Each structure stands twice: as C-alpha cells, then as structure tokens.
Task: inverse folding
C-alpha cells in the first residue's frame, strides 16, 4: 500500500473510531497518533516516556525488549502516554485492523487517564517536563562527569519507589501546605517546600471528615511549635516520601543532586497511578476496544485477525494475573450485576437494575486496582476464571490457595503500595548524629536480606551519613545499619 | 463537539537513545565481567559450551538493587484452565536450571535471582587474554611462530581524520608555500597538503613454540578435578590459538602410563587406575627429543594433577622435571586440591626445585583458574 494512501485510510478509521467512542460517552483528550518503527516503540517502552533521561538501566530494559521482539517472542502494538493532548504511538507494519483495535484501545486509555481520580494530580505536560529534566541531567554529566552523575542516578533509582503519592491528603501536607497544587510541579523546583513554614496551615478544603485527622494527632504536633521544638524529631511524623525527605534534609548534597532526587520523584509520582491501576486501565481499554470494533464493518479476514489479536491479549497465564483479562472480566461482571441485580441485591443494596454502564463509568472514575478487587471481585468470578494463589514449596511452585476470599486477599496484598515494601523515615537525626532511621512497616512478608544489604549503601550515598533500617525477620525485630563500610545486622 | 486528532509519521532515524544506553549497558557488562574474571573463567556454561558463540554469564553487580520482599515467602496470583486444585504442581526449580537455560515460559516465573549478561566467547577471550603472553620467549632458529601486528608504515593523501600525520602535513604546506615564494610563517593548509598515516597488518615472526599439555586422568581425579584442569586447558588452547599463529600443542594424558592423545580425546576421555606422574614426564622428554629440538623451539610444559602420586615415584618426578627444565622455557605444575585432598605429596616434593622457569601452584576452587592462567602466562621477559 502506498504510504500516503495508507495514512488516508488510517485517518478515516480514526475519525470513525473516535466518533463511536464519543457515542459511548467516552471522554478523552485530543489524540496525537504517530507511526513508529519497532526500535522506537521499544525504546519508549523501556523508558516509559520518549523524552526521559538517559541511563544504562533503560538500555538494559530496551535490549531485553528488543531481543524478545527480534526473536518474535513478544510484540508491543502501541504505546500511549498520559498527556494532554494524548500521544499514542503505533507500530509501523501493523495491519489496518490491528491499528483499528489499537486506536480503539488507546482511546479508552485516554478516557481513563482523563477521568480516573488517581490521575487527577498527574502533570499532563510530562512529555515536556521529562525532556527538560533530561537535558538538565545531560548538562550535569558535562559539568560534573558522566560517572559521577551515573553513580548518583544508580543510587536514587535504587530507592525511587519510596515516594508518597497520597502526600497531598496526609497530615504532613496539611502542615506544609498541600504541595503539588502550586503549579503542578510540587516540590520539584528547589525541593525546599514547606520546611519550617507555618503560615500555610490548613489550606485543604474542609470536609465532614476532618475530625478523623485528630486521631493521628500526637501531643505537640498539632500546632506549629517554635523552631526549637521542631528540631526535636525530624520528621515530626513518619514520612513515607523518602526521596522528598532526602532532597530536603540530606546535608551534603549539591544542588544538582537535589535536583536529580526531585526529578526522579516527580517522574515516579507521574508513573505511580499507572502502576496503581494497571488491571483497571487495561481492563477498561479491552472492554472498549471489543465494543468499538463490533460497531465497525470488518471483512471476514479482518474479523478473524481481530479475534486472534484479542485472544492473544486476554490469554490467561498460570504464573501471573493477566490484567487485560481480569480487568475486562470484572468490568463485564459489574455491568451485568448492575444491569440485572438478583432479588437479594435489589432488596439489600437498593439496586434498581439497568444501571450497568453508569456503574462501570463510576468505577473507572473512583477506584484503583486495590479497591477495585476488594470491592468488586466476586466468588463467582474467582471460580469462573479459576484464579488461585501459588507459592514456592521446597523446589516446586505449587497452587496453595483456591478459596476465593484468600485468593482475593492475596491479590490485594500484592497490590498494596504497588507491590513495594512500605518504608517510612522515622528519624533524620538518629542518635543525635544526623543518621537516617528508616522503618519497614512489615506487612507480613519479610524483606530480601541480601537486597537490603545491597540497597542500604545506596541510601547512605545519598544521605551522606550512616543509615538504619528497622524491619522484622522471622517474627523478630531487626535493625540493619550501614556506616559506609559494612552492613551490620542486629536483633532489637 | 469536534474531536481533534492527528496522525503523522516522522523520521526517527536520529532517535538513538535506546541504542546509546544499550551500548552503555554493554560497556558496564564488560567492566563487571572484567572485575569478576576469576568467577567467569571457570563458568560451566562456557567450558561446556560446545562451540556455542554466545554464552550467558551471571553478574550480580549489574542487578538493580532495591528494597524488595523475600520472594521465597510470597504468594502470587495465577490462573488455571478451569480445574486447578490446591497442591497442583506448576513447575520446579530443577526444571528451570537444567541444561542451557530456561524452559519456555519460565521467564514469567517470579524469583529469578540474578541477572545474566550475554557475551560472545570471543569478546570474553579478549578480556581474559589482554595481559597474557608466552613467558621467556627466545629467538630460535626456526621462525614459525607468527602473531599479528599493526604497523603504521605508509603515508597517503587520503585517510581517516584521526590518523592525520601532522608533521608531514605541515611540511607539505611549508614546501608548497616555499615554492610559491612565501617567506613569513603564516601558511594556509590546503586539502592537498593533508597526509595520513596508514597501517598494514603484518605478521610478526617470533620463534616457534610448542606447548606440552599434560593431564592426570587417573581414578583419583574426580569430575571436579578434571573440570578444573579442563577449564585451564580450554583457555590455554584458545589463548595460544588466538594470539599466535603457529604454536603447536601436544596433548598427553596419563595414569600409570602416559600416552599422546588427540585434543578431543584429551578433553573427553576419562580413565582410571593409579597415578605415576613420572610416566608423562618421561613421554614428554621423549617427544622433545624426537620432534622439538630446544634449539628450534620454545618449549612450554604444563601438568595438572591432584598430587595423589605413588610416593615411591616422587623422587623420579623431581629428577625428570629438572631434566625438562633443561630444555623448556617454562615448566608449570598445577595441583588441584579437591574434596579428598590431604596434603600434597608431589607439590611438596617439588619445593626442592629452585629454578626460575619452574612455577607450581595450588588450585582450591574454581576461582583459582584465572590466577593460574595469569601466573603461567605472564610475559616475564619484559
């Protein structure tokens, strides 16, 4: 097919699909499609964003994805970016029907980005933000040396997931004046927000639930004391945002290092909602690509090609939960249960019926994966999909739970904090020596000790003074410490 | 409401970030391997690679460490075909680790513990051989041994800008300007003045050399001991063949008796029985006598054994090694101290030998193979 002719055909397809999507009441940003060769799609996949900074870990991810593509083991058909306008990249060489499915799919992602609550605070200009951050980091490389910058990036990347996406509703933010609202950049610019400022107290709108905050309040922390009192404990409450805390309080960092901490924090805050809603987002997109494609007139060959591709996307796996499949099935199940409630549901939950569509739009707006599964995964669905939990027993991987509630709770557990251990900064001046004391809020699973011992030195490198991590091993409280030379471990 | 959308196709040929970072990652892999050569050299996947070109090397230092859960205690979600029951077996560790790698689908399994880098055997060999050489090499009558060398010996008017011959270029410019009658020093340099150095690949003829590879294949040499000897000789042979064009290698295997074998037999055939190391030295001396006159050849003899020699034979061995030293540039003895090793007999006996061309080392585990290579093959004449 002639390239320009191909573009024309694609253009007409997009027009039609977008119109159908509007007809279904999907609500999305303007779309910007671009056709890319495989290497480019894969590099976008590895970096998460085409404009992101340069680092060998992305090279490693890129190499892996590219190799799998070269050996025909996997194929990314598209890549979509949460931005306004929404960018979507289509793989060069996609057949027309493949592109139709991909366009329908990303249009629904676009709707999800725009409407889901957890994305409300994400910057929609992240393509540009990341590009400017990348060029700043490149400048730092010229100025301070590639190895030095790379080393520092290595260390920050080792702890990059320890941010607090809910910081804007935490008491700390109330104290410091809801960061993030100010220009979308939050604390990034100088990474010096709020510390010691009292004037911004309670900029949060008042709600009927304000009294709940009092439950958290410890004596003396409720009002803003003098500077002397503040120094007593730092932070005043356990702080989940390790990157922010270090950017603010690590004593010996240079400006460029604080900037890098802020850049990685901003980027993690941007990616977090995507990790938090993987099942919903993919389920939503799959739900809609099915329904949009049904509205198109496909030839017999196209219909078969589409069915093959869709089947590939929702293929179940014995070793992992396929988010496309689980999400799709759950949305369909919710729709059914709100369209045709049982007599019990009508009576008990006052559910009138025929509200399926309305309900799934509400769910896509208000939930994340964790609450989605907790609130909507039913016993019937667990049985129908034959979901289970498995575990390593000796040298074997075995199915260990089939009970639906255990399965549901097991899935939820793995989604908690996006699957990362929940750490908080307890003290930034431990033993009055400026040492950093972290605590792992043990959720029932021990940490990988070898990895703790390898990661603590990275924290040390950023903090510049000895660092400690409290956790629980085999039911006993344990403290890991790194003083710049050796990792020590003792039971508390 | 009018929906806005655009579709474009851009030229992406300049977008090379992925490739550049991939290259940086490869560099880091190489650095990491170089730091861990001792571990990598005796990696089974290489020695037993059967000529495969690309090998996988585990490197821990390139792992992306972060705080994570102990995977052994975690439960993961999965999906059955409709009939899954508690206790169903999904896979096992052995399956995952057997042979060359992973069974299909294993990539999906959680808990893959270390990162494997891919590298070609040639790249790895380059790293290992970087500072190895044949020690005590001397000028002999028969110039057979050739190694490749690059020589800049020609100057041309075209070439790579990095190879500009500045001095000659300036001279050309001066000459041309002088012919025009220019006297002051501010010349221009024209394209015609440029001179470039060019190189030729030449063979540097060195003296011919022969290596006698001797290995104990007696019953006391278990699979591990054989493996160690084998990995040493694997790299030795590769090293000699890459660096020198014409080095000859003679393979001698022995238990109570010694015999010359083909390269393949040497590496694959097992034997049994007792040990009489003197037999192989005797054979080596005979072969030198018959085929490799010390006047024509640099002779290197390496012997690997577990040291479990007939004690009545030790004196004989010492005598023969001293005999070998008269005609060899280097005699190396490597003793592999395996699980059943209880104080050496032979290596102790060799302590008596004080000759600068004799090297004896002990190998306790896999990581000692690389130091062994380095101590046998470092160029002592510089």
Result:
């Amino acid at each position: 097919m002639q390239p320009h002719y191909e573009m024309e055909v694609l253009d007409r397809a997009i027009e039609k699909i977008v119109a159908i999507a509007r007809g279904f009441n999907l609500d999305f940003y303007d779309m910007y499609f671009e056709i890319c060769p495989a290497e480019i799609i894969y590099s976008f996949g590895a970096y998460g964003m085409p404009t992101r900074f340069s680092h060998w870990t992305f090279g490693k991810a890129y190499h892996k994805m590219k190799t799998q593509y070269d050996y025909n083991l996997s194929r990314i058909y598209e890549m979509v970016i949460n931005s306004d306008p929404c960018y979507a990249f289509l793989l060069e060489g996609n057949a027309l029907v493949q592109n139709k499915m991909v366009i329908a799919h990303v249009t629904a992602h676009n709707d999800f980005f725009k409407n889901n609550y957890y994305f409300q605070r994400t910057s929609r200009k992240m393509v540009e933000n990341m590009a400017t951050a990348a060029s700043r980091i490149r400048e730092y490389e010229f100025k301070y040396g590639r190895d030095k910058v790379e080393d520092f990036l290595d260390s920050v990347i080792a702890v990059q997931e320890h941010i607090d996406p809910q910081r804007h509703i935490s008491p700390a933010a109330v104290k410091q004046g809801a960061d993030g609202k100010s220009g979308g950049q939050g604390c990034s610019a100088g990474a010096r927000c709020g510390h010691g400022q009292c004037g911004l107290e309670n900029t949060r709108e008042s709600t009927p639930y304000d009294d709940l905050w009092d439950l958290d309040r410890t004596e003396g922390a409720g009002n803003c004391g003098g500077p002397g009192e503040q120094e007593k404990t730092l932070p005043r409450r356990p702080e989940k945002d390790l990157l922010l805390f270090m950017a603010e309080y690590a004593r010996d960092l240079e400006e460029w290092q604080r900037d890098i901490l802020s850049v990685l924090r901003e980027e993690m805050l941007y990616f977090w909602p995507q990790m938090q809603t993987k099942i919903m987002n993919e389920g939503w997109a799959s739900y809609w690509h099915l329904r949009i494609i049904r509205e198109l007139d496909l030839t017999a060959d196209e219909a078969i090609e589409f069915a093959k591709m869709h089947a590939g996307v929702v293929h179940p796996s014995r070793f992992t939960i396929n988010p496309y499949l689980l999400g799709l099935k759950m949305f369909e199940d919710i729709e059914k249960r709100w369209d045709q409630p049982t007599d019990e549901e009508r009576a008990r939950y006052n559910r009138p019926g025929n509200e399926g569509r309305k309900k799934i739009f509400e769910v896509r707006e208000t939930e994340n994966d964790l609450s989605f599964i907790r609130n909507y995964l039913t016993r019937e669905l667990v049985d129908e999909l034959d979901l289970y939990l498995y575990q390593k027993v000796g040298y074997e991987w075995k199915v260990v739970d089939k009970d639906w509630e255990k399965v549901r709770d097991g899935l939820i557990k793995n989604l908690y904090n996006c699957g990362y251990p929940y750490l908080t900064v307890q003290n930034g001046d431990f033993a009055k020596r400026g040492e950093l004391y972290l605590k792992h809020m043990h959720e029932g699973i021990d940490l990988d000790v070898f990895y703790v011992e390898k990661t603590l030195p990275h924290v040390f490198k950023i903090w510049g003074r000895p660092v400690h991590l409290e956790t629980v091993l085999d039911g006993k409280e344990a403290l890991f410490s790194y003083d710049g030379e050796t990792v020590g471990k003792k039971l508390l | 409401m009018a929906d806005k959308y655009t579709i474009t196709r851009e030229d992406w040929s300049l977008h090379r970030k992925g490739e550049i970072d991939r290259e940086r990652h490869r560099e880091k892999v190489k650095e990491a391997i170089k730091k861990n050569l001792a571990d990598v050299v005796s990696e089974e996947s290489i020695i037993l690679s059967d000529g495969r070109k690309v090998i996988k090397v585990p490197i821990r230092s390139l792992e992306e460490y972060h705080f994570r859960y102990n995977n052994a205690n975690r439960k993961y979600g999965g999906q059955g075909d409709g009939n899954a029951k508690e206790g169903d077996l999904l896979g096992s560790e052995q399956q995952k680790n057997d042979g060359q790698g992973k069974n299909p689908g294993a990539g999906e399994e959680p808990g893959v513990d270390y990162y494997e880098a891919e590298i070609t055997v040639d790249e790895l060999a380059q790293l290992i051989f970087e500072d190895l050489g044949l020690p005590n090499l001397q000028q002999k009558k028969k110039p057979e041994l050739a190694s490749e060398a690059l020589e800049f010996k020609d100057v041309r008017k075209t070439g790579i800008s990095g190879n500009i011959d500045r001095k000659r270029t300036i001279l050309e410019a001066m000459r041309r300007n002088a012919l025009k009658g220019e006297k002051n020093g501010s010349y221009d340099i024209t394209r015609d003045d440029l001179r470039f150095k060019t190189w030729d690949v030449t063979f540097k003829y060195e003296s011919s050399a022969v290596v006698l590879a001797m290995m104990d294949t007696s019953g006391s040499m278990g699979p591990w001991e054989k493996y160690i000897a084998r990995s040493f000789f694997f790299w030795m042979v590769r090293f000699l063949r890459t660096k020198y064009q014409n080095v000859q290698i003679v393979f001698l295997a022995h238990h109570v008796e010694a015999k010359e074998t083909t390269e393949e037999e040497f590496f694959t055939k097992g034997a049994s029985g007792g040990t009489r190391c003197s037999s192989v030295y005797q054979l080596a001396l005979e072969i030198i006598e018959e085929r490799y006159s010390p006047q024509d050849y640099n002779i290197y003899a390496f012997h690997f054994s577990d040291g479990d020699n007939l004690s009545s034979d030790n004196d004989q061995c010492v005598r023969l090694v001293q005999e070998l030293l008269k005609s060899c540039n280097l005699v190396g003895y490597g003793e592999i101290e395996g699980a059943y090793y209880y104080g050496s007999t032979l290596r102790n006996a060799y302590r008596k030998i004080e000759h600068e061309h004799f090297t004896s080392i002990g190998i306790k585990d896999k990581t000692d193979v690389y130091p062994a290579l380095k101590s046998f093959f470092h160029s002592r004449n510089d």
Observations:
- The CA atoms of residues 101 and 293 of chain A lie 7 Å apart.
- The longest helix of chain A spans residues 255-276.
- The first strand of chain A starts at residue 31 and ends at 36.
